[in-house]
What we know:
By secondary structure, the chain is of the alpha/beta class.
Amino acid sequence: MTPAQPTGDLTEAPARSEDVDPVLHVRGLSAHVAGQQVVEHVDLDVAPVGVTALLGRNGVGKTSTIKAVLGLIGRAGEVELAGTDLVPLPTHQIVRLGIGYVPEDREVFAGLTVTDNLRLAERRGSEHRYDLVYDLFPELKQRGAQAAGTLSGGQQQMVSLARALLNDNQVLLVDEPTKGLAPKLVQEVSQVLARAAQVAPILLVEQNLQVVRELAHHAVVLTDGRSVHHGPAQEFLADDALTQRLLGVHGEGGSDPTEDHDQDRDQAGAGHTREEHTE
């Protein structure tokens, strides 16, 4: 496939497969926070298996796209989960339909124990996969009585991932899971996500292109709040000119070099969660 070339106009939206419908279907998604437009026009599909990567430079609206899917910020457009229209639904009903969410900055309940953090994530009517969680994260079982706020950043990320994996979800929305982690922990998180993708499909926001290369089957790229590229992830990463133009890095590179310097448009939504929305 020849990668789509970014222009001032939208690239053609991904077509539905004739054989397999996407579990998450988004068309013409726009979103706003406090009167500021943070997503302009996003089209994407998440296949019922594997990992779909949502990529782009800092500040293009990746985190805001995930929040718009969840109904955490004002939105318009089409958002369907396995054929169910999510746009008119509040966030708690959307989550009950089977969407797991791993936010960018973990958002553990610092004053509660690890075990209580997991128990709070239990969804009524869902199977609770403690066997899977403790198989993936045996350390969480050992530290069950420890306050989550005293854990290291990597351990808190384990808690955040475990909460999403605890329930029977149709799709997982995972935002920057390796952000700020040491290389060894990045590899461990990547391995966990590979296991998780066998349980439920994942829409993954990730700046580390090596992680994307290891995990993603499909890639959607945003520029200025708009989706401008859809296609196989490996083909996109192999096109050095295209990755340089859309991401500002070479395809064989790692994280976005602007990661610590750009002001994210998602900071407009800071009042909606306690995280600082840097992408």
